[in-house]
Design brief:
This protein has about 270 residues and is α/β, with parallel strands linked by helices. The chain is built from eleven helices and eight strands. It binds 3-methyl-2-oxobutanoic acid (KIV). The site of 3-methyl-2-oxobutanoic acid has 10 residues, from loops.
Length: about 270
């Protein structure tokens, strides 16, 4: 849990300053009920493109649309006051050119009031990150297992396990840090490399499936609550079975309606 006591929202420089002082805690949120609950508990909330799979049941994150990113991010910003809010730029909204990336990132920032954007970025896209940062867009660069590259990778596979993969990924990380990303998100990265990148970098490295060596951790909230889909990655720890709680409550409701036990007098007007 964050040790911040002020009611002011954490900023990008606040997150950067936490490096080496305290672990950074992050979760995803796409909607008001979850965002409100996690806001006081975390340092940043990511409105991930995982929205496409978790909230809409689509096959991959490639199906997320820019207007959906804006709509979900605005909902999360509007109901929170403590955590820094970061919007995940959807597939196809930033890869074409630095100019396209600037146009879409600026739209997301101005339409939602979020604090920063996240881009899945390798060495090629690092020049886009530099272009954005130079123009006032704070960028978290996502490296390692990049779900928007699923068709190139041929599946969701941990990265940095071979010498060649580790060297390539190390270069991606260095290029994005050099480009001015305020933080790296390392997904599905082998522990020795995640440790090396975290130790080398002056910017905080947030891990998901990238070992405790990172400066902070993030999980998809639905995964830790037991509300995720059938595919449970090795890096997920389930902290609760909220699905079971929902099933019991809704079954009780359905039964009471069918038996004529709900609603009762106290739920009625004028009687
Ligand atoms: O979209 C998402 O939820 C992510 C995870 C890595 C947290 O990017």
């Amino acid at each position: 849990m964050s040790t911040q006591t002020s009611s002011q929202r954490l900023t990008v420089p606040d997150l950067a300053a936490m490096k080496g002082r305290q672990k950074i805690v992050a979760l995803t949120a796409y909607s008001t009920p979850i965002a409100r609950l996690i806001d006081p508990l975390v340092d940043f909330i990511l409105v991930g493109d995982s929205t496409a799979m978790v909230a809409y049941g689509r096959r991959s994150t490639l199906a997320m649309r820019l207007e959906e990113t804006i709509s979900h991010t605005r909902a999360v910003v509007d109901c929170t006051q403590h955590a820094c809010v970061i919007a995940d730029m959807p597939f196809g909204s930033y890869q074409e050119s630095p100019e396209q990336a600037l146009r879409n990132c600026a739209q997301v920032l101005s339409a939602t009031g979020c604090d920063a954007v996240k881009l899945e970025s390798n060495r090629t896209l690092a020049s886009t990150v530099a272009f954005l940062v130079d123009r006032g867009i704070p960028v978290m660069a996502h490296v390692g297992l990049m779900p928007q590259f699923v068709n190139i990778m041929g599946g969701y596979k941990a990265q940095g396990l071979t010498e060649h993969s580790a060297a390539t990924l190390h270069e991606d990380a260095r290029a994005n840090l050099g480009a001015g990303a305020f933080s790296l998100l390392l997904e599905g990265v082998a522990e020795p490399l995640a440790r090396r990148i975290s130790e080398e970098s002056r910017q905080p490295c947030i891990g998901i499936g990238a070992s405790p060596a990172c400066d902070g951790q993030i999980l998809v909230t639905e995964d830790l609550l037991g509300l995720g889909g059938p595919r449970k990655p090795r890096f997920v720890k389930q902290y609760a079975d909220v699905a079971a709680v929902i099933r019991v409550a809704c079954a009780r409701y359905a039964n009471e309606v069918r038996q004529g036990e709900f609603p009762e007098r106290e739920h009625c007007y004028g009687c």
